[in-house]
Amino acid sequence: MQDTPPTHLLYASAPKIYPRTVHGFFANLRWVFVVLTQLVFYGLPWLEWAERPAVLFNLEARRFYLFPLVLYPQDFIYLTALLVICALSLFLFTALMGRVWCGFACPQTVYSEIFMLVERWIEGDRPQRIKLDHAPLNLEVLVKKVSKHLIWGLIALWTGLSFVGYFVPIRDLLHQVWTLHLMGWSLFWILFYSLATYGNAGFMREQVCKYMCPYARFQSAMFDADTLVVGYDAKRGEPRGHRSKNLSEEAIKEELGLGHCIDCQLCVQVCPTGIDIRDGLQYECIGCGACADVCNDVMKKMSYPIHLIKFASENAIEHRWGLQEQLQRILRPRVLVYATLLLSLCAIVAYQLSHRASFRVDIVRDRNTLARVVEGSDQKMVMENVYRFQIMNSKEHTQQFEVTAHGIDQVKIETPQRIEVLGAQSKWSVLRVAIPAEHASPGSHKIWLDVRSLEDEQRLSEQTVFIVPAQ
Question: CA angle, 315 as apex, 211 and 26 as ends, to 5°?
Fold first, then answer.
């Protein structure tokens, strides 16, 4: 029987990663996405539509505003469709371009880039940060560390405030913060989201991508040999090794027997997850292209052709395909399936939203008042059922609705048949539905309550049951 190894041998601690600053096409593209995503995230809560927030998920009032749309919990199907659309989009882009979402638009990547920008601005680039972390604690080190964490904290708090601003009007939220009246769930979620941003982007960074994100684990199921990924051209680069810049490419190949890779390790130093792309495709690679940018700079300095590391498919690298050959492989079965499903679902959702009624109806039988025989409005005895009836107005202005019933001979509504509902509001009403007592046969009878908007003549019909007890 083997002895159980000590607990501390069951894992290996990883060294801290200090990504080096990199410039180039992919670095610039990544910052374009950082700016665009944050303009949307920070800006949407401030936009107004018809004197209300343009985007607001008011959980307390159970109303969700999305520009001209006013949605209710009964519209949950649209949220489900949106999540499916996002999933299919992720599958499609992954099949086409690998983890391009992770490298350019994922919140973890975006906020890590923002936090690293602050870090480089205060502490310097990779060599300076390494030196600072190993220096003894003094006033300079303390000032830099405190300044960095203070700015990180402010960014995280503003991010948390903006996040909660999607659920509570952000102007009201800022007023509560300013007057020190912020409390309850708003305060909790601001602090929680701020702490999550501060911890994930400031400290955990690549650990989130490597160990916490499930996408890294199942991405291989959506990859194939024609998926565009960040790849290293081993045929051209190997064997790797140092050499003089003054030697010609032919001399290096014939005399030293080396490929184009000079083994400078810069592709490792710029990688935000600390991997060596020359070891092949790895699940830790987020497809940011930083290694491609820095390698292109090195190739230019060495007067070698660029794109030793590049975005290309495995087949393209193996068979030396150009752009035209890769484009011919785009429309493959899995891509066509994802694209067809995505476009079909988007079309269905767009059609449903464009033909969506301007109101919704909900009917609940009043369990406190069962069927009863009472005197009707015409002084005749009737069998009456009572219902609680809700109309949800999805427009921004007041609407009037007319309610009628059918399904049983001589069925009618005893309460007022016209109901007025304020804009973007819902209203519960009590409906007394009756039939002549002499026509009431025992049992459960299907009836329909019809609701018609007097403004646009839209109609909805809800089925319920009319109960007549046995004598």
Answer: 55
